[in-house]
Structures are given as structure tokens and as C-alpha cells.
Amino acid sequence: MALLATGAVVLTACGSSSDALGGGQATQDKVIVASANFPENELIAEMYAGALESAGITVEKKLNIGARELYVPAIQNGEISVVPDYTGNLLLLEDTKATAASSADVYTALKAALPADLKVLDYSPAEDKDALVVTPAIAAQYKLKSIEDLTPVCSQLVVGASASFPPRQAGLVGITEKYSCTFKEFRSLDTGGPLTLNALLNNDIQVADLYTTDSNIPDNNLVVLEDPKNVFPAQNVVPLYKDGSLSDAAKQKLNDVSKALDTATLTTLLRQVTTDKMPAQTVAMKWLKDKGLV
């Protein structure tokens, strides 16, 4: 994920129906659905787009546009209408000292913290949290079950994650503050993707930031470290949109998608995209049809 951007930014939208942000503005007559630059978010964005199109709403897609620090201003500028987001990280973007942890509490705090021009629809039961993950060998060697167990050995271990992980409260900042854990080294890799996974499996790093819906975790018997101090708050999927950019019909369709999606289903569908290499749009449309949403 891209680092915090300053100044004018042009974002390339790989695999989308538009080559870059900019140009047309989102309106209630044309909903511009965007996604961050990782497979799960693109998959959910395809669900949003397919459901909206089935209701006769004109949809434009701008997928894989970058990190939250980039697409939030784009929503506020009217360049996109809606993007799938995650309640906990979105809350911490607005309030770095937020302490809410449960799904309901995080959602309530998020609605209160958002600026007036940004809104969220209903949050989904589907949740995908960041997690610190280690191999079974590292877990056994250092007797690791939770992040708290890392504290005495952090200085011996290398952690790998996306470039945006170190400065975030739900990242190295929070881990250092809450667990007094300072790693030997941080290695900038990808956003819970193959670079991070392979570095962990090859012992180039000993701790990785992965996502809890990642099928590579059970497939490789990886150990997810418990987080008793809630560095990583609840991360329920939620549509983030610009106030006034969605019609009532569009809001209802997106809420229907959120209601129908759960964590187990999201994990299964994501496996089809990342492991089976099926196109996200194909996976999304089949699920929407199976659920009677199109």
C-alpha cells in the first residue's frame, strides 16, 4: 500500500474500467466504485459493482487505486463514490487514540469520528483483521502464543509488512506502545501478499503482518498470535461513501451485500481469487447470483 501522499497525486487504476482517478465526477446517476490495491478489497468492490448494476444503476469501476490515505481524499473530492473499507483502520485514520475494540463499539466510534462529508453504511459480519503471524517452528522456539509473548524476544526478530505498517496505530506504533516490543528490523514487503508470505516461510522474516481471511495461514499451519491488548481493533467490512453520492436504492443494494457476507464466506471466496486464480469479477458475480442479489 502506498504511503501517505502529499500534494497532487495521480493514481493508476490497474485492471479497472478507468485508467486513473480524475476526469468524471461521481453522481447519484453514476456510481464510481473503487477498491484499495489488494485482492480481497477488489473482490468486495466487484460485489458492490455487480449488485448496483443489477438494480439498473450506472457503475464505473476504478480498482486497485492505492491505500486509504489516497482513496479517502478521492471520495471527498467526488472522484469516486464508494469503496469497501474496514471499520477499525478507518476509525484509527480519523482518531489515532481510539480505544474501541468490539465490532459495535468501533462502528459507533467511527460514525462519530468521520468528517461530515464522509459516511458509512451498515457494517458486515465479515471481518478481516491484521494479525501478527509466525511459523510453527518460530512459535515453538520462542514459546509464542500471543503478541505479549514477543516482548522479551522482539529485539531478536525481523518483522515484515507493507510500507504503511510502521507509522500506524494498528501497526508498529501500537505494538511498541502497548507491548513494549521493538523488533530487530522492519522489512517493507507487500500488503499481506506473496512477498510477505514467502519471506516468512523462508525465515527471511520471523514475524509477518497477514490478514485473518488469508487461506495461506491454515494451508501452511501458521500461528496467529493473540492480541490481548487490542492493537488490532475489529475490522468489519463497511462501504465508505461521500455524503449525497448514493441514492437510497444504491444504499439498500450495498447494505444487502454487507448483510449477506460473513467471514467464512469471504475467506472461501478469496481463496478462489488468490489460490485458484479466478478473476475477482467472476467470483463476485457467482456469489451474488447464489445469494439472489442479482
From TrEMBL:
Pfam families: OpuAC (PF04069). It comes from the Bacteria. Residues 30-289 form the ABC-type glycine betaine transport system substrate-binding domain. InterPro entries: ABC_Gly_betaine_transp_sub-bd. This is ABC transporter substrate-binding protein.
